[in-house]
Design a protein that fits this description.
The complex is a heterodimer.
Chain A: H1 5-15, H2 28-38, E1 42-46, H3 53-64, E2 69-74, H4 79-88, E3 92-95, H5 100-111, E4 116-117, H6 119-128, H7 139-142, H8 146-156, H9 161-168, H10 172-188, H11 192-202
Parallel strand pairs in A: 1-2, 2-3, 3-4
Chain B: H1 13-21, H2 25-36, H3 40-51, H4 61-66, H5 68-78, H6 83-102, H7 109-126, H8 133-138, H9 145-168, H10 172-237, H11 242-261, H12 271-286, E1 290-295, H13 302-321, E2 327-333, E3 337-344, H14 359-371, E4 375-380, E5 386-393
Parallel strand pairs in B: 1-2
Antiparallel strand pairs in B: 2-3, 3-5, 4-5
Chain lengths: 204, 399
Amino acid sequence: MDDHRLFRSGVRGEIGDAVEVVGEAGDVDSAVHVISEQQPDLVLLDVHLPGGGGVEVLRRVLARRPEIRFLALSVSDAAEDVIGVVRGGARGYVTKTISGKELANAIVRVADGDAVFSPRLAGFVLDAFAATDAPPVDPELDRLTQREREVLRLIARGYAYKEVAKELFISVKTVETHVSSVLRKLQLSNRHELSRWATARKLV
Amino acid sequence: MYRGRDDRLFAGVGSGLARHLGIDPVVARLALLALSIGGIGIAVYLTLALVVPVEPEARDEAAAAGDQAADGRTRARRKGRDLSQLLAYVALAAGLGVLFLLFGGVFDPLLWFLVFGALGGTILWQQANVAQRDEWVTAPVFRGRKGWVRTGAGVLLVIIGVIGFLAFQQQLHEARAGLTFAIALLSGIALIAAPWIIGLVRERDKERRERIRNQERAELAAHIHDSVLHTLTLIQRRAEDPREVQRLARVQERALRSWLYQRPADAETTVSPALERVAAEVEEAHGVPIEVVCVGDCPIDDGIRATLQAAREAMVNASKYAGVDAVSVFGEVEPDEVLVFVRDRGAGFDLDAVPADRMGVRGSIIGRMERHGGGARIRTAPGEGTEVQLTMPRGPETR
């Protein structure tokens, strides 16, 4: 789902061999329509979509069909956009400069139920959960564990999941578990710092 | 003859007169004060204040028009009147006045009401003075508290003056009919003119908004032209060289991104933008894309500056020798230290095999970090890529 036709056909050409593309759309209304018609495993979603943005698509689709998975894709580096779609239910975020092979990998991984964190998203999440003096409302959700933090930092340093696993002497599966748990915390945490941080970033 | 601008006490008449006659301003002021006792001095002063233009500013008017807004502020501060001197003169005048009254001088209330009226008139007319016309444009009469207070005070003084004058001339009751007529006429005119004036004000506001919008659009167009269009032209011309095309596209993307998402003010004072700038420079020089992720931020001190230089060296090495098409940089600002990681998945090298006289790694990275109290670790092996880890404790300036 992207409002630039040129970009859509480019992506189609790049990933067409690896996955089956069942539909595409250029704005929120047609995206919701195409998704409910085609019932795809995974939706590749642009953050900036005319008619309310990717967040709106997530809200309208996930309310009825929570099993559909979303991977957000954006040219925007604005943190509040990225955090916004991930909190809205996307299971990963990649930038549009990603190569076709990597994108296909990410798509397969998200379709399998894992989370895909690019280094940049890992950086944003670390920033969002940065230690503050304010006591957490819900310690379970509002804090990252030491291990999760380590995993995120390695991802931010440019490590692939496999390399993270090797570095920390854990299995790739465990890395994926940690990342999924970070994702869950990001989506469920109501920690006010998260929203306040996003607001502060909006000024940038 | 000009009225003084920088050395004025009230309207600059005293200093202007003094300069014109070649005498000390104190003498001119005292002379005016002495004349004022009879009332003539005040009339002279007010007339000169109205008629004589303010001394033109030394600086070039064209430049002044350009940065009027910023200039207006600094100028207001610079040309501020010397209040203490002004107070001294007022006190002197008051003292003289009291003496004059006590020792049988003719206190003609009529004169004072004339003075009130003239003062109010001056304040009102001052608003339309030539020298202040630029202030009219940037800050109209009714905009801002100062404008309102000034206008209100002027109107009040004029009214006091007129009514007082009439009252003491024993003509108030005769004038009442005329006054009523005048007020009725004025209200009528106001009623007729009000919609037109309001329309005029709105029109002007609209015009101003339009102008600002046009300026913004022009600025945006200029920026797009200078950057994006220029790069697209270059890309078309270099179409046969994919590496160069990619480099151009990356450089432009970075520039546009920083223009869109970053405030220009903090471009070089804190870690995160500085690290991105370093990466951009290395990328531009060596043509290898560098992905920067930065968590947290803090001001830069000497230690962090050294860290940035070491990071630059590491990025240059990775771009030149690793033989990869991407380098990852991760900067993290922790409560008590700053960490920078520069990583590539390229050729790697045998650290022990690097000759001792090679300055790159030992001098520019490890040595530099250690000199500033930090540390550098290099993890590498042939075929396994390289990661340079830099740590620097945060100094007191960065907290």
